[in-house]
Amino acid sequence: MTDNSPWGNSFSPPPVEVAELAAVVVDVARHRYGVSLDLTSETLPFLDELARENRLAPGGVKRLFALAAGAYLGETLRRAFGGIWDLGGTPQNPENWSVRFLSCPLALRAPQLGEEILAQSMPEESALVVSPAFLEMLEAVLSQAAPLREEEYFSFCGRYDALHLVVDVLTEAERRLAEREKRAPRWFGHEDPANVV
């Protein structure tokens, strides 16, 4: 991975389906605010402002925006931390798409997370998938972190920051485990984190 990659810390561009869905919010922001969102964390406040406006939109518009905003957040995270998209064999169903991170056993169902943030409610199934081998340790670390206010929790900026912490914690846990086992840290991504032991 190089610093001058057009995809940040990832090796390749996102799938066309993801790019097209994320482009929906890029177009909306350009028309609404006259700004070009560039898939960096600095642009997430615009996404949060658009989310506030779209919470009252009619059902189909609201759902499209939620999925598109989730895809935008997922691609922003993928570029920042390195990862691949898994479309779950169903490119026509964005709610099944996830970003799998390279440095740790973590996947994020990003479009599903967009729906959760817009609805401001917890889903039945978590948008995060963490290796069971790392889950207890992650929960212990997160229980020590400063809690997010509800407004922050249901925002794209707040989730980016929280997921940044999760990726850092899991990446460091894998680094330490590799050090103890006298091996190089593993690369994840192609494997479902739920199956990583």
Account of the 3D structure:
The chain is an alpha+beta fold and 197 residues long. The protein has one domain. Helices cover 53% and strands 7% of the residues. The protein is built from 7 helices and 4 strands; from the N terminus they run H-H-H-E-E-E-H-E-H-H-H. The protein has a 4-stranded antiparallel sheet. Strand 2 and strand 3 form a beta hairpin. Helix 2 runs antiparallel to helix 3 and helix 3 packs parallel to helix 7. The chain is globular.
Instruction: Tell me the distance between the termini.
Output: 26 Å
Q: Roughly what is the average pLDDT, rounded to an integer?
A: 93
**What's the domain count?**
1
Run of helices and strands: HHHEEEHEHHH
Quaternary structure classification: single chain
| Most strands sheet | 4 strands, antiparallel
How much helix, percentage-wise, in residues? 40-55%
**Low-confidence parts:** none
Total DSSP E strands: 4
**Strand content range:** 5-15%
- What order do the strands of the largest sheet run in, or round the barrel if closed? 1-2-3-4
Report the C-alpha radius of gyration, rounded. 17 Å
Task: Categorize the overall geometry.
Answer: globular
- Provide the structure class: alpha+beta
How many helix segments?
7
Present the secondary structure layout:
Layout lengths: L15 H18 L10 H11 L4 H23 L1 E4 L11 E4 L4 E3 L1 H10 L8 E3 L1 H13 L5 H4 L2 H25 L17
Antiparallel strand pairs: 1-2, 2-3, 3-4
Helix pairs in contact: 1-3, 2-3, 3-4, 3-7, 5-7
